[in-house]
Amino acid sequence: MSRLTFAEAIVGAIAYEMRRDPDVFLIGQDIGPFGGAMQGTRGLYEEFGARRVRDAPISESAMVGAAIGAALQGKRPIVEVAFGEFLPCAMSQIVLQAANLRYMTADEARVPVTIRTRVGDGPYRGHPQSYEAWFTHVPGLKVVMPASPADAWGVMAAAIRDDEPVLVFEQMYLYHAMRDEVPDGDHLVPIGPARVARPGRDVTVVATAWMVHRAIEAAAALAKEGVEVEVIDLRTLAPWDQEMVLASVRKTGRLVVAHEAWKVGGVGAEVAATVAERSFDALRAPIARVGAPPVPVPSATALRNLTIPSAKDIRRAILRVVRGDPS
Amino acid sequence: MSRLTFAEAIVGAIAYEMRRDPDVFLIGQDIGPFGGAMQGTRGLYEEFGARRVRDAPISESAMVGAAIGAALQGKRPIVEVAFGEFLPCAMSQIVLQAANLRYMTADEARVPVTIRTRVGDGPYRGHPQSYEAWFTHVPGLKVVMPASPADAWGVMAAAIRDDEPVLVFEQMYLYHAMRDEVPDGDHLVPIGPARVARPGRDVTVVATAWMVHRAIEAAAALAKEGVEVEVIDLRTLAPWDQEMVLASVRKTGRLVVAHEAWKVGGVGAEVAATVAERSFDALRAPIARVGAPPVPVPSATALRNLTIPSAKDIRRAILRVVRGDPS
Amino acid sequence: MAVDSEPWLEVYRWMLWSRLFEAECGRRNPRWFPAEGEEATIVGSFFDLRLDDVAAPHYRGPFVVYAMRGAEPWRLAAQVLGKAAGYSKGRSVPFNGPLGTGIVPWVAGDLGTTLGVATGAGLAFEYDGSDRVCVVSFGDGTANRGDFHETINLAACWSLPVIYVCQHNGWAISEPADSYLKATVSARAAGYGIPGESVDGNDVLAVRAAVGQAVARARNGGGPSLVEACTYRLQGHWAADRASYRVAEAVEAWRERDPLPRLKRVLDERGLADASALERIESELGAEVAEAFARAEASPDPGPADLGLAST
Amino acid sequence: MAVDSEPWLEVYRWMLWSRLFEAECGRRNPRWFPAEGEEATIVGSFFDLRLDDVAAPHYRGPFVVYAMRGAEPWRLAAQVLGKAAGYSKGRSVPFNGPLGTGIVPWVAGDLGTTLGVATGAGLAFEYDGSDRVCVVSFGDGTANRGDFHETINLAACWSLPVIYVCQHNGWAISEPADSYLKATVSARAAGYGIPGESVDGNDVLAVRAAVGQAVARARNGGGPSLVEACTYRLQGHWAADRASYRVAEAVEAWRERDPLPRLKRVLDERGLADASALERIESELGAEVAEAFARAEASPDPGPADLGLAST
Ligand SMILES: Cc1ncc(C[n+]2csc(CCOP(=O)(O)OP(=O)(O)O)c2C)c(N)n1
Ligand SMILES: Cc1ncc(C[n+]2csc(CCOP(=O)(O)OP(=O)(O)O)c2C)c(N)n1
Ligand SMILES: [Mg+2]
Ligand SMILES: [Mg+2]
């Protein structure tokens, strides 16, 4: 066990996998001597050199396309799109090449490419947009979004070893916010299964990344008021763990979903819709969704803070479904 | 009144608006002498010439970017991205420029740009992908998807006159499939309101584009069996008509959503989630969603037909929520 | 190069194979994209590649490239007919090919993105320190997509063994090249600090020479090159396109420069094949093509099992 | 051009304004992107534009361009401090400016897309048959984005009045230009059939001359041009970046070529301003900057009303 930050865990996982497999290498901008945005590749260049830690020109589409092409030749590239705001620049490569290659070759092709990117609010404050929902709509892509250092290491390692394209969304608030025990050596967190972050019997809160922590904060306070909240950390957004969520809702009869991204059309919509389809009879109250309001993410701190779902917002949503409080 | 096909109505609306406003012009590929994919710009070049019907190089990002920039200068460009499959090529311009400009200039900027594109299965068969759900997640964009020639004319005209960026998704099966009465002259269908395509009391089916017709087909058959289906044509996907859908569900107590795009993460998820949030108490049965299975859209006719939701699929979903039939 | 030591008869055979096979594709599928007239560019660009190299042919006329690398004609025909025997079981666009032949498959219809994937093959080769190369061809219209710029610049910066061949056929559907290109495509090479060359794309000798030189350079660590092969799209954009947007005269002028008769003349001058030998080849290939389509025609359509819902 | 008839003192004033204002921005906001050393390129590219032209400055150092076109310094300062008095009420990135000054605003952080929007301004002018033009500047790193290629080619094909100025400062964050450019940026112009020129970006006379020529050409229907102004990023990528990834010597060499002392020399040689006059200007501007930040500092943060939830 070592106590690592989220960023250290990500870098640790990449370094571990690069030591383990000579076909793993990294493509990105400023990932070399600079050490990556928010120190997200710190030390990798020093250990692995320019051949395996490749600084690229500002050309996200070429970076992702080249990574896909190398993956088709048996390499296992990790391509770093520094921030989620730049994913649109590589959109065709991701949704039309990476996602289609295996299916459109009758399952012959394998595309073991990992696309990592930074999203959300945090100490960096730049480029906060979080588009993960788009990619959950596209068959052929796996999408993970860890909430803890241990999971960050585990899903990054699993993504690198996965034979399908995997997008890893790294929430920036979490980057240096906490330290956490991470198992040493071969540590994998399978892509797919969610995690019960806090057990409870009265209401299920399905959350992602930063919002997992704010949900736990709200749950801790509500416990003192006699409301037992079960917090589920989704971890994998595609394919997501329907069974765990449905089982929890069957137990609690109530569902709240919370993420930092825009509420409308977000990942929470898919979770809510699936529960309304498959566990309707267990539902004893309306579903509540918590997410960002429908405006582009503003830049000024004072303004942005008004748009990020707070523990209080989650608390309000919980009380709405538990006690029928007005919205 | 004239009886027009869907394609004729789209072209008619564009021609009408171009006659009405000299600042309206069209950018695209093969929209000139060729008359556009599936005759989607037929006759416009002959009437308006090369200055207002501009054939562009294969560069979707530049086309959309230039249209946005011209819109900032007071023009009202229509940019044609021939098929939805090419929207990813212009993704940054759409979601980071068009969507943000007004908000990020404190409501000073106006971006009266219309982005039209063709999606779905149909006689053309190429480039069927339908990504409309992505854009409903992005604040600052309006998204319309008409199901009839009359609405096609009306929403296209409304989109061109709108001061915000509007994406118009033209479903290709509908292009030449039917003729329909379209009012002559100034015909506008406001962006926002949905339409009751067929009234009913037992179950609400919210559908888009082609699926509206398949829902009506299913409804007609079920009427003979005593099931009265209310079919709502959403028409506008963002901002969509929550009030009409919620009112209908409060009446019927049952909801089915149907679209041609992938079910997972599709527009139907947002509709289902909203109903489960805001009309939960009115729901008397689980919600059912109908959409494409989670595979990239295949090419061979025999295979693709297996992935497109049929009237029978919609019928099955209806009976599931009305009679509790097994899935 | 010493022409007579070269396999000109084989080159001719493949160009003719393409001409005949493509004709049948267009006859059976109105949405096929005919490559008639562009055979010298297509065959000349890929004929000399090793089987362990990667070939990423343009979407127009790729079948002959797959066939040269071992694809079964009847299974390619099956793709044109949307049959289950197609290499992707009917899943992909029909101009896709078998991954096993060392190609960059066509898994989507958006032009330009295959340039990125092909560049990645070169990246893998450079990473492994191997002498393998990738040849990728693309249209003169596709040359205006952002991916052209980003990928060639990346290949130049990393000195990747990738040869970018522009299959310049003068048209992008209904748009003439002079409307979307204000200079030669090869003139763009200087901006990336790589060699660029324009050649007569209807002269298979010239195409093989130019691409061969670029391949040799790439194998020796010399990095990428850009070759512009100027040819002409003799038919419409797709088989059913009457191409009423262009004047017949221009097309006829280019018919005069048809690459097949031109190579025939070379063979004749050099005494590499007499008329009867060429006739024999033509009838052999005709039979091969007919048989391929007959077999494909008789094969089943794809069904639920081919949908692969399990696999995802 | 006849130098003495030119407003060199005003040019100097703006370059100095930029130097002083940017310094304060960096002092107040560690995430500010300092433009020190690039003032000749920035001011020289936009100084001569008409107010009815459109200016689309690069994200590094755009404030002086907004100020030259009428922006209020204290409101720009408010943006750096995230205050409600910023032109976007705190919504946009801080390097945005007031739309009313005829600019292409910065509404997102992805580099390259503003090239498309700026090209659209040129499209509107061409559409109207007006003689207005758009000058857009961008970095040497940004020159590798697909939008560079697509938009310049579109402008070339449609002969749009757009001048593309590469603010080549030798770096893209921590990456040196020779790692992502294997030729001059101006060498790319030939591939689009447009004029391309590289100039000393620390010589404001040269920048004004090159851009001025391109602007004149565009006004007269001559279409787009590409100008590469070679300058240097004297500070780190952002104010807090210590730039430990590069050697101090190179930076010092470039400090020798600081555009401000260079212009000072010209003013002196030509007797356009004596030391005391220049000192007066410097103290005036210093006071102006201090006052702007003091006023911004004292102004309120944005609140719920500025979020504009109603408006969407
Ligand atoms: C990104 C993108 N935009 C538009 C299209 C539609 N389209 C299909 S073929 C074609 C013309 C391509 O021209 P070129 O690259 O010269 O190839 P050619 O057809 O001449 O062989 C176009 C515009 C596309 N497939 N992809
Ligand atoms: C599409 C995109 N990719 C990456 C980034 C991250 N980024 C911000 S500034 C920068 C360097 C830009 O270099 P250059 O264009 O030369 O401008 P300079 O910073 O040197 O003024 C990068 C890579 C971005 N903002 N947008
Ligand atoms: Mg062509
Ligand atoms: Mg730079």
Number of E-type strands of chain A = 14
Q: Rg of chain A to the nearest angstrom?
A: 19 Å
* Uncertain stretches of chain C: none
Query: Could you tell me the strand content of chain C as a percent range?
Result: 5-15%
Report the mean per-residue pLDDT of chain C as an integer: 96
Number of helical segments of chain C? Answer: 12
The strand line-up of the biggest sheet of chain A is 3-2-4-5-7-6-12
Strand content of chain A: 15-25%
Number of helices of chain A: 12
What class do helices, strands and sheet pairing of chain A give?
A: alpha/beta
Largest sheet of chain A: 7 strands, mixed
Q: Can you tell me about this structure?
A:
The complex is a heterotetramer, with 2 copies of chain A (327 residues) and 2 copies of chain C (312 residues). Chain A has 12 helices and 14 strands. In chain A, β2 (24-28), α2 and β3 (53-55) form a beta-alpha-beta unit. Helix content of chain A is 37%, strand content 21%. In chain A, α1 packs parallel to α7 (149-161) and α3 runs parallel beside α4 (91-98). A 7-stranded mixed sheet of chain A has the order 3-2-4-5-7-6-12, sandwiched between helices. In chain A, strands 9-11-10-13-14 form a 5-stranded mixed sheet, sandwiched between helices. A two-stranded antiparallel ribbon of chain A has the order 1-8. Chain C contains 12 helices and 7 strands. A 5-stranded parallel sheet of chain C has the order 1-2-3-7-6, with helices on both faces. In chain C, α6 links the parallel β2 and β3. The model of chain C has no long low-confidence stretch (mean pLDDT 96). Chains A and B meet through α4, α6 and α10 of A and α4, α6 and α10 of B. Bound molecules: thiamine diphosphate (2 copies) and magnesium ion (2 copies). One magnesium ion binds next to β4 of chain C.
